[in-house]
């Protein structure tokens, strides 16, 4: 009987604690550093974790760098070895806050928010301000945000030989269904 009570309390406490958070372990991040007239420099990571605290609007995200996939395998190799140095800096972490976020105000119509926070990548932390759209659907809360970062802000240098083929200004797009 004691075991049943202890197990019940444990399960109930986990349920109560989980009420304030929604998350996804399969969010998508696409980055693009393409330059017109040259080969596309674009990758996608479909295994990004995003967590939102529904009570405070705090948001956190984690992306493993080696999970980004390119159309060209050689680009992926150069990305991991020469640019982001994935063995030394294996992940990108974002921590911030969704301004004015109230989960109960979400409807099927997308609502605009501003996300402020810090992106840690390649051993550097840079302030990020991004617009986001969120809405409630039958599958959860949809989140989509786009923003730009400069590779140089993270001490990621682009070799002179490819400087005209790879943009320093990188477009980032995150899409998640949070449950």
From TrEMBL:
Pfam short name (any one): YceI
UniProt domain Lipid/polyisoprenoid-binding YceI-like: residue ranges: 47-177
Organism domain of life: Bacteria
InterPro entries (UniProt xref): Lipid/polyisoprenoid-bd_YceI, TTHA0802/YceI-like_sf
Coiled coil location: none
Protein name, as recorded: Lipid/polyisoprenoid-binding YceI-like domain-containing protein
Organism in which the protein naturally occurs: Flavobacterium glycines
Lineage, uppermost ranks: Bacteria, Pseudomonadati, Bacteroidota, Flavobacteriia, Flavobacteriales
